[in-house]
Amino acid sequence: MDSSEEQTVGGEPPRGSTPAGGALARARRRMGGGPPPPPPPGGEEEEGMLRMSFLEHLEELRRRIISALIGIGVSFCLSFLFCDQLWNIIKQPAVTALKSLGYEQRLVQITPMETLNIIWFKLPLVCSLFIASPWVVYQVWAFISPGLYRKERRWAVPFIVSSAGLFILGGLFAYFVAFRFALTFLLGMGHGKDIAPFVSVSEYFAMFVNVVLGIGLVFELPVVIFFLTLLRIVTPSFLIKHSRYAILIIFIIAAIVTPTPDAFNMMLFALPMCLLFYLGVFAAYLLTLHRENRRFPWKTTIIIVMAVLLLLGAWVYISITRHAIKVVPHWPFLLH
C-alpha cells in the first residue's frame, strides 16, 4: 500500500507526510476534492451561450416585439408631423410621369375618406417602417443573439447596419428607378389613343407601397444568405453549386413583383437581385474564411476595384465633356 493511502492511527498523520499536508488532504476530501471536473459538452465554442427555457424564449420574444412596436410608434408620430412634406415627395413620380406624357399633373380623390386614410395614416405608417428599421433589426438581433457563440455576436453592428441600410437602399432604388419606369410605362400605354389617365390617390399609393416595400425586402437577400451561413444551414460552395436555381427563382420573383408585363422592367428588377445574391455569397465566403482563420486578399481586391472605378469615372468624364452628356437625378442618370 502506498504511503498516500495509509490510514491514520490514533489521529496521527501517516508516515512520510507533514501535518500541513495531511490537513490539506483532509480538507480536499471534505470539499469533494480530487481532479478538476471535465469541461462542459461543446468545449470553448459554447462559452458565453445563454441557456433559456421555452417560456423564457416566449417572454423574450414578447419583450422584443413590444420594443419594436414602440420604436415604430415613435417614428409614426415623427412622420405624422411632416405629412404634407412627405406627400409632396411621394407624389413626385406621378407628377414627373404625367408631365413627360403631356397629361394633367394631378391625382384624383374618389371617396371622401380617401385622402384622410392615405396622407394622414398610411403614409406616415410606411415612412415609420423605414425610419425605425435600424431599431427593429436590433430587436431581431437581440432576440437571436443568446443562441450564438460569443465570437459570433461580434457581427451585431455589421448585421444591423447592413440590414437597415439595404432595406433603405432598396426603397431608394424603387423610388428613383423602378417605380418611375413602371409608372411611366403603364401611363403611356394609352398615350396617343385618346385615353386620358384617371389615377386615384388610393390606387397610386397602393402601387407605390407594393413596389417600394417589395424591393426593400428583396434587397435583404444578402443579409438572409449571411444569416443562414451564420447558422450553418448553407455554405458558399452549396450556393455557388446551385446558383442556377437561385437565378431562376429570382426571375420568378421579379416577374411577380414587377407591376408591368414587359421584359425590360422585369430585367430592371432581376439584375439587381442577382447582384445582391452574389453579394450575399461573398459575405458568406468571408464568414467562412473567418471561421477557418484564413484571410481574404483585400489589398489585391481593392486595387482591382479602384482601377475599375477609375476607368468608369474616366468614361463618364469623357462622355460629359466631349459628347454633350449631362447628369440627371433620375434613371438612366446620363442623357444626351
What's the short version?
The chain has helices at residues 19-30, 54-80, 83-90, 92-101, 114-131, 133-144, 156-187, 201-218, 221-230, 236-241, 243-257, 263-291, 298-322, and strands at residues 326-327, 334-335. The protein has 336 residues and is mainly alpha-helical.
How does this model look, in words?
By secondary structure, this protein is an all-alpha fold. It has a domain at 300-336. It contains 13 helices and two strands. The protein has a two-stranded antiparallel sheet. Helix 6 crosses helix 7 (156-187). The N and C termini lie far apart (101 Å). The relative contact order is 0.07. Mean pLDDT is 81; it is low at 1-21 and 42-46.
Biggest sheet: strands side by side, in what order?
1-2
- Sheet bearing the most strands, described? 2 strands, antiparallel
The count of helical stretches stands at 13
Distance between the termini: 101 Å
Strand content: under 5%
Query: What value does the Rg take, in angstroms?
Result: 31 Å
Q: What class would the helix/strand composition place it in? A: mainly alpha
Which geometry do the CA atoms define? globular
Set down the secondary structure blueprint:
Blueprint: H1 19-30, H2 54-80, H3 83-90, H4 92-101, H5 114-131, H6 133-144, H7 156-187, H8 201-218, H9 221-230, H10 236-241, H11 243-257, H12 263-291, H13 298-322, E1 326-327, E2 334-335
Antiparallel strand pairs: 1-2
Keywords:
336 residues; 66% helix; two-stranded antiparallel sheet; single chain; globular; mainly alpha
